[in-house]
Write a structure and sequence with these properties.
Number of helices: 3
Radius of gyration: 14 Å
Largest sheet: 3 strands, mixed
Structural class: alpha+beta
Shape: globular
Length: 89
């Protein structure tokens, strides 16, 4: 969804439920769509079905689920300048 604020800023709002399988192409496609829109800001929410930072988010985490998707999400965050509000301090 695209939102125009005060006829000045455009915001891309993304609500997603990602596959519960290791499918990095899903996130790569999302990134491509966001980049094509070329809006000023992006807000992305939903269920990514992965853990971004196992050491910070879990105790005794044994196996990284969906590791390829996780790497794609970390790249996506960096490439389109997303900040996880849980980590902003």
């Amino acid at each position: 969804m695209e939102i125009l604020v005060d006829n000045k800023y455009t915001i891309t709002l993304v609500n997603l439920y990602s596959p519960n399988r290791d499918d990095p192409d899903f996130f790569s496609n999302i990134k491509s769509i966001i980049q094509e829109l070329e809006n000023d800001f992006t807000i992305m929410v939903g269920d990514f079905n992965l853990v971004q930072e196992p050491n910070m988010d879990y105790c005794n985490y044994k196996t990284i689920n969906n590791p390829k998707s996780r790497l794609e999400v970390l790249k996506l965050k960096e490439q389109i300048n997303l900040t996880d509000p849980w980590r902003a301090y």
